[in-house]
């Protein structure tokens, strides 16, 4: 029926006619929508649950997500406080490598998930700390970005739970197109910046940059709804309890993107 814009959830294994959580096999790696196959799930789509193993619950997802987010938060605060801003690049590289391992192996290994969270926490903490120490205009920007990210997360969760916006195949197709479009623009802007100052003007603090950041925040925010939907279906289909770590990882990747975009927009506002 639906697939997430999150690459972690898009890599979930498919089996037979039903894909992830009973989703049709037409759902591809780049997203898209497929008709929901109204069939009895076996749980194998999420990893076979061993005999006697407890099934996934919403509490599992909440607890594991809180642990991963908390790990990133603590790592980020410690990095910013210590002034070890040079750790940004190494942490990004480690986080990227670990994320590839988790995604392509569909791993629910808590050590890998927490390593990813800690690495990205260090990276974001270093970037935020460097920004705050670059001038008085940016002091406190990290706290604002954290509050903004948490606010968007809670807000989108409320929107999802109340059904104010339905996660439908049409909604998913629209969001897939928006996500792909945003990524393409980012890549083109990066390439153009090698030849012209400011590239396409999407990241230079201009009015166009403001608009682009707002669009990115919107796309990331609505991506959370698809992630919530995927997690909800994993619970309903009886995934093994350990799968909560993989769901937490998927949510964490979206939160990292959301935080970066909010931080960037705040930096534009503070620069005026």
TrEMBL record:
It comes from the Bacteria. It holds the Pfam family BaxI_1. Keywords: Membrane, Transmembrane, Transmembrane helix. InterPro entries: BaxI_1-like. The chain crosses the membrane at residues 61-78, 84-104, 111-131, 143-162, 174-196, 208-231, 243-260. PANTHER family: CONSERVED TRANSMEMBRANE PROTEIN-RELATED. This is Uncharacterized membrane protein, YccA/Bax inhibitor family. It comes from Pseudonocardia oroxyli. The lineage of its organism: Bacteria, Bacillati, Actinomycetota, Actinomycetes, Pseudonocardiales.
């Amino acid at each position: 029926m639906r697939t997430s814009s999150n690459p972690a959830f898009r890599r979930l294994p498919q089996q037979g006619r039903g894909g992830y959580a009973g989703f049709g096999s037409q759902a591809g790696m780049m997203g898209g929508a497929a008709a929901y196959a109204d069939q009895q799930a076996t749980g194998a789509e999420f990893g076979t649950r061993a005999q006697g193993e407890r099934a996934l619950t919403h509490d599992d997802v909440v607890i594991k997500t809180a642990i991963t987010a908390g790990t990133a938060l603590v790592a980020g605060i410690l990095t910013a406080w210590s002034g070890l801003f040079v750790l940004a690049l190494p942490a990004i590289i480690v986080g990227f490598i670990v994320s590839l391992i988790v995604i392509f192996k569909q791993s629910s290994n808590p050590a890998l998930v927490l390593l990813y969270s800690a690495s990205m926490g260090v990276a974001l903490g270093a970037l935020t700390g460097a920004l705050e120490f670059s001038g008085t205009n940016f002091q406190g920007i990290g706290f604002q970005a954290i509050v903004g990210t948490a606010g968007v997360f809670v807000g989108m969760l409320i929107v999802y739970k109340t059904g104010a916006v339905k996660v439908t195949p049409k909604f998913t197709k629209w969001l897939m197109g928006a996500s792909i479009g945003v990524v393409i623009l980012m890549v083109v802007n990066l390439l153009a910046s090698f030849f012209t100052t400011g590239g396409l003007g999407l990241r230079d603090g201009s009015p166009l940059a403001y608009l682009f950041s707002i669009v990115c925040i919107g796309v990331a925010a609505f991506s959370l709804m698809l992630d919530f939907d995927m997690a909800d279906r994993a619970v309903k289909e009886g995934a093994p309890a350990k799968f909560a770590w993989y769901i937490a990882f998927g949510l964490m990747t979206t939160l990292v993107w959301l935080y970066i975009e909010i931080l960037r927009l705040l930096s534009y506002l503070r620069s005026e």
